UniProtKB/TrEMBL annotation:
Domain Peptidase M48 residue range list: 72-243
Pfam families the UniProt entry points to: Peptidase_M48
InterPro entries listed in its UniProt record: Mito/Outer_Membr_Metalloprot, Peptidase_M48
Family: Belongs to the peptidase M48 family.
Binding note for cofactor: Binds 1 zinc ion per subunit.
Entry protein name: M48 family metallopeptidase
PANTHER family per UniProt: METALLOENDOPEPTIDASE OMA1, METALLOENDOPEPTIDASE OMA1, MITOCHONDRIAL
Cofactors named for this entry: Zn(2+)
Gene3D superfamilies in alphabetical order: Metalloproteases ('zincins'), catalytic domain
Keywords: Hydrolase, Metal-binding, Metalloprotease, Protease, Zinc
Top-level lineage group: Bacteria
């Protein structure tokens, strides 16, 4: 059982927060501490792992899958080591692959646990696009968007129960629902903006995320990627990402995609 973090408990008591109450999205009030993010993220990630492991979908970090992660991890680390993250040294920052060719999605827990579906990796055209999408999800965790949205949806008292191990049913619901969280326009815009910022010091074309949205938009009339259901409005987002990238003069970089293509073949 994880012990209750004093900053969260003190804030909840001081503000008189009861069952089901919550902070409104965008009001700037986040009652979770960074330590609470880490604790909640660890529990949610463990439940997420066990759920997909039971279905045989979690690509474990073991010898059998060593090559896949040897190809993925350098992409992740280039984004993480850009020098632009607020919580680079606070959060765990592990990225895991869920094997499902039919789902084109990715999501983040509090505390820096990132999950990416094999269907999304297969959908992308190059390594810069993957780096851009990973940067977007890393931003959701680093800017603590996921914690804010969970606080809004479930209320502080419910999350307190999860943190103290007293609400395992709710923990399961949170873990199952993470991939379907719909962030506000403000949070999506900020995550897009930081994705560009994170990629700027790297070798990647820093408008990589825009490449995904362009392709996804072209397919939106048929079978659009699941990522679009929780990350809507591709038109405005493509323009904003490209504008930010032009401002930073970090577009059009050419990257050798042989490792990315090998990762796609492995999955």
């Amino acid at each position: 059982m994880i012990s209750l973090r004093k900053p969260l408990l003190a804030a909840a008591l001081f503000l008189g927060i009861g069952l089901g109450s919550c902070s409104k999205d965008g009001d700037g009030v986040l009652l979770f501490s960074v330590q609470d993010d880490i604790a909640l993220g660890a529990q949610v990630a463990a439940k997420t792992d066990s759920t997909y492991r039971a279905n045989g979908q979690l690509l474990e970090r073991n010898a059998a899958n060593a090559r896949a992660y040897a190809l993925l991890d350098p992409i992740v680390n280039r984004v993480l080591n850009s020098g632009q993250l607020q919580h680079r040294n606070d959060f765990v920052w592990d990225v895991k692959i869920i094997r499902d060719p039919n789902i084109q999605n990715a999501f983040a827990t509090p505390g820096g646990h990132i999950y990416v579906f094999s269907g999304l990796i297969d959908f992308l055209d190059n390594e810069s696009e993957l780096a851009g999408i990973l940067g977007h999800e890393i931003a959701h965790a680093d800017r603590r968007h996921t914690s804010r949205l969970l606080q809004q949806q479930y209320g502080v008292s419910v999350l307190l129960g999860v943190l103290t191990g007293n609400n395992p049913g709710q923990l399961t619901r949170i873990a199952v629902g993470l991939g379907q969280l719909s962030f506000s326009r403000e949070f999506e815009r900020e995550a897009d903006d930081y994705s560009v910022t994170y990629l700027n010091p790297t070798m990647y074309s820093c408008d990589g995320a825009a490449g995904f949205f362009i392709k996804a938009q072209a397919q939106s009339q048929g079978n659009p990627p699941e990522f679009l259901s929780t990350h809507p409005n591709p038109d405005n987002r493509i323009q904003a990402i490209q504008t930010k990238a032009r401002e930073l003069s970090c577009t059009g970089r050419t990257v050798n995609n042989s490792n990315f293509q090998e990762l796609q073949r492995i999955l």
